Amino acid sequence: MKSFYITTAIDYVNGSPHLGHAYEKVLTDVIARFRRLMGDQVHFLTGTDEHGQKVQQSARKRGIPPQQLCDEVSAEFRALCAKLNISNDDFIRTTEERHKKVVRAVLQQLFDKGEIYKAEYRGFYSTRQEQFLQEKDRLPDGSWPEIYGEVTEIVEPNYFFKLRAYQDWLVEFLRGHENFIFPRYRQKQVLEFLKEPLNDLCISRPRERLEWGIPLPFDENYVTYVWFDALINYYSAVVDKPGIWPATFHVIGKDILMPPHAVYWPIMLHAAGLALPQGLLAHGWWMTSGAKMSKSTGNALNPLDLVDEFGVDAFRYFLIREMNVGQDSDFTREQFLARYNSDLANDLGNLINRTLNMTNRFGGAQVPAAEVAEEPEREVHALWDKTRDEALTLCEGFQFHAALERTFIFIKSINAYIEKRAPWKLGKSVEAADQALLRTSLATMAEALRLAAALLRAVMPATTDKINSVLGYTPGAVWREELNWGNRLVGAKVAESLVLFPRPAPTPPAVGNKPAGPKS
RNA sequence: GCCAGAGUAGCUCAGUGGUAGAGCAGAGGACUCAUAAGCCUUUGGUCGCCGGUUCAAUCCCGGCCUCUGGCACCA
Q: What gap in Å lies between CA A451 and CA A483, rounded to an integer?
């Protein structure tokens, strides 16, 4: 079985989960579920990044130990995974011993090889904020903003990793692996960036400034800083699990593609003699009216509430259907409702319910066998084969939004097929030919629905299960075989009815000067 | 400033060297198994702006405008 190891970025615990985190987890989960269905041996890792200045400061502000803060927030991210029905196999925290051990081992190894050296770091330091500032922090007139207090240029000994020595190697590597980064144009960006010489990477902070971190194994007066801690989680989580490394894909936000994942990480691995991942998948951001969606912007709408209101599958469907992986998308309640009502409630949900109803009313609650295959049936069969083939290809290329689009075209075609056959008319006829057509139409709509549901499995797993359940069907172990048109449902006893995606109560018209709707 | 991506119907987007397509929204119709859902028909666009190449450009070239992102030790 082919091994497929996929990761999300680990989330920094200095803030609560928001839509961006949710999207990355859902996207990665859909890929993981899809690969499992395709027969790969999948290992899916997510987790939390827990060290650093900001965590230390936040904990101090609240008067609690940093570990307690990490425990609290990390639990929130775990809860998010559960809420979103994420199928991760492991959840790593950078404060776990299994991780720290590996970070120290890798650092020691690189130090012994001479890849890490001590030198002086020079920069502008804000005592009040306890951090070094960058040129871009300056005001246009060259002075430093008030919040930094007194800023002084200081020189501090630190440890550096020899990034620059590997710059040419990295350029060669990327030229030789054109599909290393998805989407492709991002790889060009990285190569463009690499035309400028790299500086070596400062990987340490003195302990008197930063306590909350992993001590360098070769100098306990320092802790390692950010990347040698965070990135190594991908490796530390599986170091004792044979057959998983290297990663197949790291799914990350475009904001941490360059330089960390596209430059530091490959060089770190190469320098340490470890195999490189097959690829990086950089996704875009959700925006609201052009503004990045995050907690700090104080957007009134909390998209995660939609999970409680409409169910996790509806939420997952929206994220995957609406976002073209790699690009940015807008998130509005209106767009969500449009998708929910049109695709899920009207097209799919209603199709399920009417299929159950008709099977009960005209078929004695049992799926009959198809007896004829005339033009309408042949059209549905042909469209299914085309839909399945295209959808699989699209999913393999991360074009899930397009795969869902095709799938829903097929679902709509089932509705159209039903109108063509009009079983409610056939049901009134006593002619043998009409009765055969009736049985055929009931069989066809049920089978088409089963197939459509199977194709949705990676995106809406609970929905697929429910549809199978009301169709009285238990799917077989091999998903690919489930995608073939057949007669598996013949004789199945179907449920009476199912309203899967109930239409939301109509919003009261926003007229007059009444106060806005009830606050719950 | 440099680099990259994007500017196509009210909205979200697809697309091709030969005077443009889908879904949603809007309008009309026939039906009734169904979540007043579904089905059929339909309105709607000088394809960002200006030039050029071509018999012909939305798609090729040049310039410009606008939006988004990256530009290093910052998550």
A: 6
Tens digit of pLDDT for each residue in A201-255?
A: 889 989 988 899 999 999 999 999 888 999 999 999 999 999 999 999 999 988 8
Q: Which nucleotides of B are covered by protein (CB under 7 A)?
A: 3-5, 11-14, 23-25, 31-40, 67-75
Q: How far is the CA of A104 from the C1' of B56 (A)?
A: 68
Burial per residue of A41-78, b for 16 or more beta-carbon CB atoms within 10 angstroms, e otherwise: ebbbbbbbbbbbbebbbbbeeeeeebeebbbebbeebb
Does strand B come within 7 Å of the CB of A198? Answer: yes
**Domains in chain A: boundaries:** 332-482
Among A276, A252, A264, A271, smallest CA distance to A180 is for A276
Give which of A230, A270, A214 is closest to A246, Cα–Cα. Answer: A270
Residue A361 Cβ < 7 Å to strand B: yes
pLDDT tens readout for residues A382-426: 999 999 999 999 899 888 998 999 999 999 999 999 999 999 999
Asked whether residue A87, judged by its CB, lies under 7 Å from any atom of the DNA or RNA strand B, the reply is no
Question: In this structure, are strands A3-8 and A286-288 parallel, antiparallel, or unpaired?
Answer: unpaired
Helices (H), A38-154: 53-62, 66-83, 97-112
Chain A residues 483-502 within 7 Å (CB) of strand B: 497, 499-502
Concatenate the DSSP letters of all residues of A177-236 into one string. Answer: -TTSEESHHHHHHHHHHTTSPPPPEE-EEETTT--SSPEETTEEEEEE-THHHHTTHHHH
CA of A445: nearest nucleotide by C1' is B33
Positions 249-288 in A, CB within 7 angstroms of strand B: 254-256, 258-260
In sequence order, the 6+-apart residues with CB closer than 8 A to the CB of A332 are A288, A289, A301
pLDDT interval class at A492 (50, 70, 90): very high
Q: For residues A175 and A172, give the distance between their C-alpha atoms in angstroms, rounded to a whole number.
A: 5
What is the CATH number that goes with domain A332-482?
1.10.730.10
Paired tokens of A399:
């074009």
CA of A189: nearest nucleotide by C1' is B4
Whether residue A45 contacts residue A237, with contact meaning beta carbons closer than 8 Å, is answered with yes
Strands A286-288 and A329-330: parallel
What are the residue ranges of helices labelled H in A397-495?
400-421, 423-426, 432-455, 461-470, 479-482
Torsion of CA A262, A266, A267, A270, to 10 degrees: -170
